Structures are given as C-alpha cells and as structure tokens.
C-alpha cells in the first residue's frame, strides 16, 4: 500500500472514531437529560400527591385564621364603641342651667325620649315633653309612685295622652334619667323640681354614647314593663 493510501486510510479511521465518539457522547447526553426529565416527573407527581393530601388541612387552617380575624375585628369594634364617649355637659344647681339643658335636649329629640324620674313638678319641662309627643316623638315616662301628688306633672302628661306609668317597686324608684334617641343619657342627682333647680345642691351629666344609652334603655324597658 502506498504512503498516500495509508495516510488516507488513517484519516478515515480517525474521522470514523471521532464520529462514533460524538455519537456516543450525544447519546449519553440525551440519556442523562431523559433521566433528569424522569426524576423531575417523579418529583412533580410526588409534590402533587402531597398537595392533594394536605390541601384540606390547610384550607381548614385558613378558615380558622379567617374566623379568628373576624372575631378580633368584632372585639375591636366593641372596644371602639366603649371608648367613643362624649360628655356633652355637666351642670350644677342651684340655678346652674340644669332645667334649660334638659329642655334643650327634649327639643332636639328626633325619635325617642325615655324617662325614669323620682320627683317631677317643673311645668317648663312638662310642657316640652307634651310638645315632643305631639310632634311624633316616642315619649315614655316612669314615675316613682310615692312622689305623685297634686303638684306632679304625672296627671298633666297623662291627660294629654303622653304614655306614663307608676313604678311597682315596693321600695323606691330613685332614678333621675332621660335617654334621648337611644344615644344621649342625662343622669345625676337632679330631680325635676323647683327646689332642685333653685335651692338644692344637685347635678346632672349629659353623655353621648350608644353603648351607655343601650344599658340605660335596657333598664328602662325592664322598669317600664313592670309599671302600671
């Protein structure tokens, strides 16, 4: 064999070996990639099964968290309502503006005026309650029966149709309370009498709070229901 043929044969051999090497390398690379794909598929299926097995538990936990959040928000709202208290006025007698402040509140009422009063003889307040009743305000008054005399506003109010009742507590109904529109509360030692207005040392405080008014309304309804 000539040297030229030998060189050509040698070159062909090298090319064939290189081609085989490349083919084997490519096949090996493809094999490794396929193996990795299989591994990823297995991991994906495993993850899917894990999610399917745990999704219910996590949903339950999420629902519990949402329920707790709602409960906390409700508690926050309650706390806010408790601190949302506005003192509209504090008055002292004698001649400190107690009667005038009560009259002004009666005139401002839009829906309801509920009263529990021990002694009530002031005509000026009685007239304003009659006017409020006549313009459609829900006026209800519970009197202490032991204080109903010829000077009491009880008879005047009753004759004009204003709903009035006597307390049936065998002891005293000693409240001096007015609730306006289920939002404003007037309370204190002040009776609605001339002596309380002009002679005695008395006081009232006027508070705007739906929560506090609600507590007083609850007691009023209880005493009103047992009244006659």
Overview features:
single chain; 228 residues; alpha/beta; Endonuclease, Chain A; 6 helices; 58% helix
In short:
This protein has helices at residues 3-83, 98-108, 123-134, 154-159, 194-198, 210-226; strands at residues 86-93, 112-117, 138-143, 164-166, 176-180, 184-188, 202-208. With 228 residues, it is an alpha/beta fold.
Using the CA coordinates, give the radius of gyration: 44 Å
Mean pLDDT: 85
Order of helices and strands: HEHEHEHEEEHEH
Going across the biggest sheet, name each strand in turn: 1-7-6-5-2-3-4
Structural class: alpha/beta
Note the main sheet.
Answer: 7 strands, mixed
Shape: rod-shaped
Counting structural domains, the number is 2
Low-confidence stretches: none
The CATH superfamily of the largest domain is known as Endonuclease Chain A
CATH architecture of the largest domain: 2-Layer Sandwich
Instruction: Calculate the terminal CA-CA distance, rounded to whole Å.
Output: 140 Å
**DSSP strand count:** 7
Number of helices: 6
Specify the CATH class of the largest domain: Alpha Beta
Using the coordinates shown, work out and report the CATH topology of the largest domain.
Endonuclease, Chain A
